[in-house]
Amino acid sequence: MDTLNADGTWDRLGSIALLLHQAANQVWSDADRATADSPLHDLGLGVYLAHSQASALLPDDYVLPDVDADEELEERTPLQLLTKAEELTRPLPLHRPDLVHGSQLVLDLCDLIREARGLGY
């Protein structure tokens, strides 16, 4: 077993990335049906960037499972997905040098949750 993943850190980050991928897809889908000046476009971009942040924290050789096949994720709202992603960050060892940018991900998730709530998600 990879000693860095012995505590489940990479799998936890992988799960966060999957949740954010699904949330971004759902928000972009809603934004496509909205007007051009809809705040959903901003939220979609923010979620997409958070997904990129989470993915960038993963090792290059980490393989994410196929999220498109997970029906359970499709049943959740973007707010539920964002909230679950934020909950998964809580036990992350953000003091580790390889996760130093994880703190920014946590802050961004909190901002996205607030924005999603403000948009009625």
Q: How would you describe what is shown here?
A:
With 121 residues, this protein is mostly helical. It has five helices and no strands. It is 63% helix and 0% strand.
List the keywords:
mainly alpha
Our estimate of the beta-strand percent is: under 5%
- The structural class is mainly alpha
The number of helical elements comes to: 5
**What do the pLDDT scores average to?**
89
Shape: globular
Q: Over the alpha carbons, how many angstroms does the gyration radius reach?
A: 14 Å
**What is the percent of helical residues?**
55-70%
Order of helices and strands: HHHHH
Write the layout of secondary structure elements.
Layout: H1 9-33, H2 40-57, H3 71-74, H4 78-89, H5 102-118
Short description:
This protein is mainly alpha-helical. Helix content is 63%, strand content 0%. It contains 5 helices and no strands.
